[in-house]
Amino acid sequence: MAASFMKKVPLLMPKLQKQLAIKSYLEPVRPDLERVDARIRAQSDAFDPGITGYVEYAAESSGKRLRPALVLMAAHATGGVREEQIDLAVVVELIHLASLIHDDVLDNAEVRRARPTMNAKWGVELSVLLGDCLFAHALKLCTRFEDAAISRAVADAANEVCTGEILQTQRRYDLNLSVPDYLRIISMKTAALFRVSTELAARLNRAPGIMVDALRIYGDAIGTAYQIYDDCLDLFGSEAGFGKTLGTDLKKGKLTLPVLHTLQQLNPADLAKVSEALLHGNADDHEAILRRVVEMGGHLYSVRKAQELLEKADKSLEVLPSNDYTTRLRDFARAFHKELDGLK
Amino acid sequence: MAASFMKKVPLLMPKLQKQLAIKSYLEPVRPDLERVDARIRAQSDAFDPGITGYVEYAAESSGKRLRPALVLMAAHATGGVREEQIDLAVVVELIHLASLIHDDVLDNAEVRRARPTMNAKWGVELSVLLGDCLFAHALKLCTRFEDAAISRAVADAANEVCTGEILQTQRRYDLNLSVPDYLRIISMKTAALFRVSTELAARLNRAPGIMVDALRIYGDAIGTAYQIYDDCLDLFGSEAGFGKTLGTDLKKGKLTLPVLHTLQQLNPADLAKVSEALLHGNADDHEAILRRVVEMGGHLYSVRKAQELLEKADKSLEVLPSNDYTTRLRDFARAFHKELDGLK
Fold first, then answer.
1. Which among A150, A127, A227, A59 is positioned nearest to B105, based on CA atoms?
2. B300 has pLDDT over 70
3. B108-117 b/e with 16+ CB inside 10 Å = b?
4. Hey, is the C-beta of A100 within 8 angstroms of any chain B C-beta?
5. Which residue among B105, B133, B169 sits closest to A126, beta carbon to beta carbon?
6. Angle, CA of A309, A312 and A316, to the nearest 5°
7. Mean pLDDT throughout A99-126?
8. Under an 8 A CB cutoff, do A140 and B129 touch?
9. In Å, how far are A12, A47, B47, B87, B170 from A125, measured between CA atoms?
10. Do residue A140 and residue B162 have CB atoms under 8 angstroms apart?
11. CB contact, 8 Å: B41 with chain A?
12. A28-52 pLDDT per residue, tens
């Protein structure tokens, strides 16, 4: 049932069958990123021999390393990459990996980045505990920062990620979830780590407050736009093209921007029908909802919202010194914006 | 089935129907403990309003606060309780609470300290995420310590707790698990937090290395003995008397000291029978195993092993200055020892 559902829906938004090409914009930091990657893989040595295999599996994921790349670009833009920023990149990625492991447990997801998830491979118990271990390890690495305010901000962001997830869980099947509340939740659960990536990279370079603030705004806007894109992907994407379990949001009552926007446009009679289909419908009913969402411009609205955030991100960097990396950060926001154009 | 199982087995060890009275030995630090308790409750203010209710529920548990009490006693014994040790007590208890929340999820436990567990009340998703939040918050509080080595040791201990749990999960149904391996696992999953409680309390007072080491040995021995007692409780205790879900270890193939000791005494034919009952048996078969364990002295051996550790704990403190609190720490080990005598 789930499989046929996933086969039909992408026809609605054929463009969502391929990965965004934004990854190529991270190329300038490729050498630093390889250092970060090597260091992430080396972390398994710090664990008990009985669990290094699992840590290696988690670390070897072929993820985009988007957060580390942003740490490195923000560092370059504000004076250069020092050892502490490599540490920061490792720490934010480990927290991200830990949160993905727990997410996959809670979503019962079987595939992530074209590989079996840890829970599919080794079960729920191991996955919950391994997420905890990675989490503890990341926060231990934080103690290397001379300025305790850096560790505090990272731990805060980790807390925010989980809190955002809890708030989202609480609002499942809540047809009254407003767009601002949705945006606040995704700013917590996703943008928090993007925000500390760019902000703290600048702070570690002792950049002036105005630049630190700008990079904070930049990270927040990129992260929020990224989550909107990811939520569209879950609704309209093709599982084969992305190597992860999709289509879980509607099934679990997680109402995301395209759906929320549509719900808010409906007259009371239609709203009642769609609500009924959301709450008690089967896969066919859910597919009908998605067709309705597209007809009523829910996906267009969402793409546009993400683009607004990317414009904000781009503009926020006007206060940065104009150098190659400031340009690259702005180019990244613009390229992401342009790719989203293609989804309209 | 489980219920009748739990009613019959305590007859084997009637003494395990009441809580140990060791709590009274923590009375001297009651006023400090109340400060710690108030501060633990106040932590909920640091969380998003959407989740403070859950944090309060977790914080309001009527636990013994054994780890904070040990922090405070070790601090008193080595010069007095300063603000940093109150923080340490809060941090170790929060990590403990977070790990209990995840344990209850993984054990599917419904009752803890005579109240519904978080997963029984609010489900698995919320419980996993709330555990993560508490964990992140505890490690954030660690950044208050001036000496980063303190936070590092706490994060290490948190990692060790989860690693110990993973190792235990890996060895389920492993009839070849040796007693030293079992002891190593419980030293990680339980004693690690006891160890940092006493060790770091002394380090924060800049106590001489020999005293810090002694308190580390003390905490490790007390924590390991406590887990052996707790494992006996799960096998032989009465659910009504302890207000928590018991009898899950055997059902989940978690082989603990009384059972391991018995397995290692059996001749091959009996071992094959008991193994079959362990792997594929029902509640009656498990009860028969427990009778066998008692007959073959598995519980006596375990009680004795815990007592040896308590003797080691007592003796380790000989190098401490003789003052009221050193005496109280030693009395605590001795009282625990004496209570275990009653279980023979």
1. A127
2. yes
3. ebebbeeeeb
4. no
5. B169
6. 145
7. 91
8. no
9. 38, 18, 27, 30, 10
10. no
11. no
12. 899 999 999 999 999 999 999 999 9
Token pair 């390229």 is found at: A335
**Residue A220 in contact with residue A298, Cβ under 8 Å?**
no
Residues of A in contact with B132 (CB under 8 A): 99, 102, 131-132, 135, 158, 162
> Which residue's entry shows tokens 């570690």?
A204
> pLDDT higher for A243 or A272?
A272
Q: Which of A241, A99, A221, A87 is nearest to A161 (CA)?
A: A99
Contact B143 A135 (CB under 8 A): no
pLDDT band at A11, cuts 50/70/90?
Answer: very low
Instruction: Indicate the residue of B105, B159, B188 with minimum beta-carbon distance to A136.
Output: B159
Kindly list the residues from chain A whose CB atom is less than 8 angstroms away from the CB atom of residue B143: 142, 148-149, 151-152, 155
Which chain A residues are closer than 8 Å to B192 by Cβ? none
Cβ pair A166:B140 closer than 8 A: no
Q: What is the ipTM of this complex?
A: 0.88
Of the candidates A331, A165, A332, A301, the one whose C-alpha atom is nearest the C-alpha of residue A232 is A301
B34's tokens: 């109340």
CB-based contact A133 B159, cutoff 8 Å: yes
Token representation of residue B157 = 């201990």
Residue position matching structure tokens 């491979």: A121
User: Is the CB of residue B91 less than 8 Å from the CB of residue B204?
Assistant: no
106-165 of B, contacting A, C-beta below 8 A: 106, 124-126, 128-133, 135-137, 139-140, 142-144, 148-149, 151-152, 155-156, 158-159, 162-163, 165
Q: From start to end of B58-197, where are the E strands? A: 111-112, 115-116
Confidence (pLDDT) at B108: 87
**Confidence tier at B10 by pLDDT (50, 70, 90):** very low
Q: Is the pLDDT of residue B5 over 50?
A: no
Q: What is the pTM of this model?
A: 0.91
In B, minimum Cα distance to A108 occurs at: B125
The reported pLDDT for the residue numbered A193 is 98
Give B169-202 pLDDT, tens digit per residue.
999 999 999 999 999 999 999 999 999 999 999 9
What dihedral angle (degrees, nearest 10) is formed by the CA atoms of A85, A88, A92, A93? 60
**Which of A140, A144, A166 is opposite residue B129, by nearest beta carbon?**
A166
Q: Does A57 touch chain B (CB under 8 A)?
A: no
Task: Kindly calculate the radius of gyration of chain A based on its CA atoms and give it in whole angstroms.
Answer: 20
DSSP output for A71-97: HHHHHHHTT---HHHHHHHHHHHHHHH
User: In chain B, what are the domains?
Assistant: 2-341 (1.10.600.10)
CB atoms within 10 A of CB B322: 10
Whether the pLDDT of residue A218 is over 50: the answer is yes
Does B163 contact A128 at a Cβ distance shorter than 8 Å?
no
